Each structure stands twice: as structure tokens, then as C-alpha cells.
Amino acid sequence: MSTPPTPPRGPGRSPGLAEDLRISIARLSRRLRTLKAAEIGDPDEGPLTLTQFAALAALERHGSMTPRELADHEKVRPPSMTRVIAFLERQGLVRRSPHPTDGRQVVLGPTEEGLAHLAELRRRKEAWLSRRLSELTPAEREILRKAAPILDKLSRST
Fold first, then answer.
1. What pLDDT, in 10s, does the model give residues 112-139?
2. CB-CB contact of 106 with 67 (8 Å)
């Protein structure tokens, strides 16, 4: 059994920076994901799960998709996506339309209610984060302001 390689060190590289960032970003991401969403529709159905939210957000972001395309995009098996779509349809958040070129298929898209629901969830998360940011010093907020584009650049790298 071999030992893992030692991370490179050099100018601008603090020995624990990668680990510190990974842990901090994961915690913040988890905290934002687990903020309680407003319950919608049938009270027995409850709020959206992370998978349901991700599927609805993917349809908003990428436009109409077939159920198979959505399952592939979200890296879930088609039967699981079928259940997600059924829930979102029951809640009135997703609609089915005929496929423009293949009469055997349908395409999915968010409804106006689905778009409004996504907007509300995002508004609540941003409000929570704004409250947390207001607890920081002006100097700490300025550091984060400067770090935001750098973190975005890291998130887009392959």
C-alpha cells in the first residue's frame, strides 16, 4: 500500500490551504442546502428533497429536457428520475409537453409555479447568507468580496 503524494508547496501555497478551503466550503454548502424550504402542495408530501430541487433547477437552467436527458444530467437512474418527475408534476412545478421531433417522447420544463418556488428558495438562502455576512467585520467582508471571483474560477476549472 503506497502513501498518498504530498501536495505541492511553493509561493502562495500554504500547507493546509487546500484542506481548510475544502472543509469550509463543504460546511457552508451543506448549511445552505439544508436550510428548510417552505413546504408546498400536499402536506403529506413535504418539502423538496435535494434531488427534486436539483432536477427542477436543471430544467430552469438548461431548458426543456426529456426524462432520460434529465436523469443523465443529474447522474441518477431513470426509474429514480421517474419518481422525482412524478412528485414535481403532482406539485405543479414541472410540466410535460410533446417532443418537437419525436412523437414517442415528451420534454419536461418548469412551470411558472416551479420558477417562483426556485426563486423563493434562492431568496431565503441569500437572506440567510446576508445575515451571516453582516456579522463579519468590514475587513472580513472585503476579503470575501475579493475571494469570490477566485473561488468561482476554482469551481469552473476541470
1. 999 999 998 888 888 989 999 999 999 9
2. yes
Contact call for residues 56 and 117 (beta carbons, < 8 A):
yes
106 domain-assigned: yes
Q: Provide the grid cell at 12.
A: 502562495
Q: Contact at 8 Å (CB) between 37 and 121?
A: yes
Our separate counts of H helices and E strands in the chain read 6, 2
> Quick one: pLDDT at residue 46?
54
Rounded to whole angstroms, the Cα distance separating 91 from 85 reads 10
Note the residue count of the chain: 158
Domain presence at residue 39: no
For residue 113 the three cell numbers come to 409555479
**DSSP at 107:** E
- Tally of domains within the chain: 1
56 in any annotated domain: yes
Report d(CA 99, CA 112) in Å as an integer.
20
In what helix (H) or strand (E) does residue 150 lie, and over which residues does it extend? helix 138-156
